[in-house]
């Protein structure tokens, strides 16, 4: 469970988050939808302890990220690519992350297989395609078998096969009773993956509910999105 309450974030004179509040429940995929610059990454960075809020709270399993004793075993995250050094192999990168977080070595081969990188285990990350980077980032997020997954624009760089695979993977992850929070500016992707949507625009939550609820009164989710965000005019 993720609980975000009253988050405010300012950069100089610009307020980028205005009292952002929502929850992402266990057993569901929650889609965090908004146009470029709406505040999705800013919210997720605060949730993951990478940035501090001016006010408000962001809790994972009832605790702030920075107070988690074994963060990678509680929450797996993917923000902007794999974070792996070009000179490392996929296996080398995962070994390093596992060792520094007390995660058993057997998990390395398991997560490489789960994300479809079993054959690329000894390939240097510098030779990876964008889609392979995303898969390695996801493998890193899964290493600690976390109950919560937080993914920022995870389909970037994935081909149609990879997108379908990720959708099915995230659905089954949530169906095991886990929490999945997934940000995107792509409506179609979230409409087919998420149980609930939280729509953010200009730093404020403008709607939340099931895809049907968010779409109600509009011809399509796309029309609802444009009406809620003032985009496309
Ligand atoms: N370090 C920073 N300094 C100043 N402004 C920032 C900083 N980080 C983010 N912003 C601003 O905060 C706003 C929200 O950005 P954010 O990256 O959270 O949006 P986003 O919804 O993730 O967008 P995108 O889909 O483009 O990634 C933007 O106006 C951005 O320019």
UniProtKB/TrEMBL annotation:
Gene3D superfamilies: P-loop containing nucleotide triphosphate hydrolases. Keywords: ATP-binding, Nucleotide-binding, Transport. It comes from Amycolatopsis endophytica. InterPro entries: AAA+_ATPase, ABC_transporter-like_ATP-bd, P-loop_NTPase. Belongs to the ABC transporter superfamily. This is ABC-2 type transport system ATP-binding protein. It holds the Pfam family ABC_tran. GO terms for molecular function: ATP binding; ATP hydrolysis activity.
């Amino acid at each position: 469970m993720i609980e975000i309450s009253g988050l405010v974030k300012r950069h100089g004179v610009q307020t980028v988050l205005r009292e952002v509040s929502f929850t992402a429940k266990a057993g569901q995929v929650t889609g965090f939808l908004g146009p470029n610059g709406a505040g999705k990454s800013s919210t997720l960075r605060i949730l993951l302890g990478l940035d501090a809020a001016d006010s408000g709270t962001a809790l994972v399993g009832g605790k702030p990220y920075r107070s988690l004793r074994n963060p990678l075993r509680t929450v797996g995250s993917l923000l902007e690519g794999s974070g792996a050094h070009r000179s490392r192999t996929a296996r080398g990168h995962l070994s390093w992350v596992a060792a520094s977080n007390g995660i058993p070595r057997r998990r390395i081969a398991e997560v490489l297989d789960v994300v479809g990188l079993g054959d690329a285990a000894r390939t240097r990350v510098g030779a990876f395609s964008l889609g392979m980077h995303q898969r390695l980032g996801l493998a890193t997020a899964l290493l600690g078998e976390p109950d919560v997954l937080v993914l920022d624009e995870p389909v970037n760089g994935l081909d149609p096969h990879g997108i379908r695979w990720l959708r099915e993977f995230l659905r089954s992850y949530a169906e095991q009773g886990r929490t999945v929070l997934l940000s995107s500016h792509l409506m179609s992707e979230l409409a087919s993956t998420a149980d609930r949507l939280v729509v953010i625009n200009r730093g404020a939550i403008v709607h939340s509910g099931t895809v049907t609820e968010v779409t109600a009164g509009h011809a399509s989710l796309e029309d609802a999105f444009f009406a809620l965000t003032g985009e496309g005019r």
